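Title: Prediction job returns without error message
Component: structure pipeline
Severity: low
Priority: P3
Assignee: unassigned

Description:
Job completed but the reporter wants confirmation the result is attached to the right record. Sequence as submitted:
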Amino acid sequence: MPMQPGLFTPVKVGPLELRNRIVMSPMTRIRAGEGCVPTESMVRYYSQRASAGLIITEGTHPSQMGRGYTFPPGLHTDEQAAGWRKVTDAVHAAGGRIFVQLMHAGRVSHSNLLPDHALPVAPSAIAINGDVHTFDGKHPFEIPRPLATEEISAVIEEYRRAAELSIKAGFDGVELHAATGYLPNQFQVTGSNRRTDAYGGSLDGRTRFTLEVMEALCGVRGADRVGIKIAPGYTVNDTFDDDPAKTYTYLARRLNPLGLAYLHVGYDSGYGRGTAPPFNPIDLLRSVYTGTLLPVGGFNKATGEAAVAEGRTDLVVYGRMFISNPDLVERLRLDVPMNSPDVRTFYGGDDHGYTDYPTLAEEKRPAQSP
């Protein structure tokens, strides 16, 4: 009788043999260097966590206009690819696997962050309620400039070029961030897409941008090295939709024929931002998506094990726990206490709260003599 799968059993994702089913979530940390180039601190941060079956990087913009934060990493220049290559080499040397998450911020940005102080772009001229962090403090979100129909192919080309650079950077694959209000998600939902051209209106129109980007990524990397993240029904960054269950089940069914590496399902409300849907996104999509499923959202060891054992998911994505526990896999395996994360150090800063959380081995190490 075959062994029942659990968090610590190996699994195949696309062509990759993963040593466990524990995935490190993409988490914004705002610690890239000048030119949005990954730093040596980022090399340490990711390689410290290489015991995860799979690491998905923080959101990485595929173009200058895709930038949404002060110091996020990018993947649209050779210098950025070289910086990421140091990260991937270190992760691979430690036995890990790593995908890059491509994240175009769209309207979740500000002219203060963009080339020539251009307005952010979006499907429609609808601003997000609230403020955005810029180089000179918080500012209200601006009304974005709607992309003209003829401009959209160029944005898709930026994603395709980023996928090409992901090979040069040594990534095992790419993930499209199509959740929590970033550009593909802005096209998907009725609250931010009021277009009347081929990229708006019907379900087919509103999901067209996402699917065309996915086809571009698959054309470069092969579908079995491409994933996508969606967050059905969550309203982070004002991603309101008239019928989210209908929208996202339609999208999941359209993704099925591509043969992707996985579908990454957001199952949280962005740490208190936005509201949750009236349904369970994992169960909603498990019934319609035929490929590998990766949910994220408040799992612990017991609930993660149960989700895998019951067949509700194939792998489990952990977020905050990986921030403060670089050896999270070992701590979960041994059922030992976890380090608590320092929320004040989540976004930006130096190595404190980034690469200095102790592993179990370091906690047991005797103190050095003065």
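Comment from assignee: result matches the submitted record. The mean pLDDT is 95.
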